[in-house]
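Figure 2 data, in text form.
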Amino acid sequence: MPNAVLVAEPEPSTRGFLERHLTDDGFDVLGAAACGEALELAERARPDLVLLGDTAALDECRSWSSVVPLIVLGAAEADAVDRARALDRGADDFLSRPFLYDELLARIRAVLRRTAPVAPDLVRVGALEIDRPTRRVTVGGTRIDLPAKEYELLLKLASEPNRVFTKEELLREVWGFRSLGKTRTLDSHASRLRRKLARGGEGPFVLNVWGVGYRLLED
């Protein structure tokens, strides 16, 4: 799946420029908006990286997520002190204006490589085991055969088993959808996955949090 980038940039022409070129370079641009609107979207959509064009919004951004990578696009007059302060406040990188797009692209890719989690070969969640190299799933020792999308949905939920993943996140990261729409794809796959995992006599798994999304386990 392409990495999802959110552009929180107050200047409309720069915003459009970044949205267009990042899309051309294979990124899923979740939205391009002024900082306040963009950060509201970020809380729902959980991007893989945020480009932040206003250092005043840095603390607000870090208040909803301490782990999403963040690159600050600083003002033209920004100096080494501004850079150090932004990094100290939680930015992962800082690039002053005017910037070269190719340099920004290289920095985005470097930050994503540096912050990407290393997925374990064997995922254990209670009685549930997922062997990633063989795609073998068992519950209490009982093998559960899953088609590709149900397996990918399970793997995503198992990455943080107690966290509620929004429908928007799951449709984007498992199916590659850009918007939620009126599709029942997620609900039907989640329902089938829940029934299959129940065959192992454990659970319940794949819990529907009404109006929000799904999580693998209760807290």
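Caption note: The chain has eight helices and twelve strands.
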